[in-house]
Amino acid sequence: MDGVCVTEHLHIEGANVAQELGRKVEFPVFRGVEARTTMGDMLVFGYYKDIPEGISLEELCWYVHEVGGLIFVAHPYHAKGGWNLYASMRARGWDLDTDWDKPAVLKELDGVEIINGQVCNEKNCQARLLAARLHLPGIGGSDSHSIKMVGAAATRFEERIQSEEQLIGALKSGRFEAVCVRSG
């Protein structure tokens, strides 16, 4: 790994601490937040504030895009706990596989996590299909809740990323690919 992005649920503080430690050892650590919205968990990049639990996805999109940040759907089909887009759609009487075009706010998203280190291959394949339906790029993430999962999935960029500005630029450009590094 050439760097890591820390995306704690709701709060930026853990990412701030990790980034400071990374600076001390000269290892790139980028910050993000995993927001828990009314439409499931979302990975937020380029917005460096705490995000209240239960924020509407519409409101989150407004705040994040206002500062030039990005929002990617996190583990849209995660079946083992955690709030996800699939569950939030079901709660509204919709099926994400067939009704993906009904919530207008999904058109505001910047991408989809298509490889998640905590999710089985079948659910990751469904996430890939969702990204294709929405015409959005896909990222990979370990979703590490234990040290053994760090680096299980990743996003490979065409160029080495050294700053958060470069990270946001690369994510906006689409010059990256999601990769499965190892299974846990």
Topology readout:
Blueprint (H helix, E strand, L loop, with lengths): L3 E6 L3 H12 L4 E9 L2 E6 L11 H10 L3 E4 L11 H7 L4 H4 L11 E6 L4 H14 L3 E4 L11 E5 L6 H10 L2 E5 L4
Parallel strand pairs: 1-2, 4-5, 5-6
Antiparallel strand pairs: 2-3, 3-4, 7-8
What do you see in this structure?
By secondary structure, the chain is α/β, with parallel strands linked by helices. The chain has one domain (4-180): Metal-dependent hydrolases (TIM Barrel), CATH 3.20.20. It has 6 helices and 8 strands; from the N terminus they run βαββαβααβαββαβ. The strands form 2 sheets. A 6-stranded mixed beta sheet has the order 1-2-3-4-5-6. It has a two-stranded antiparallel ribbon with strand order 7-8. The chain is globular, with a radius of gyration of 15 Å. It starts with a strand and ends with a strand.
Short recap of the structure:
The chain is of the alpha/beta class and 184 residues long.
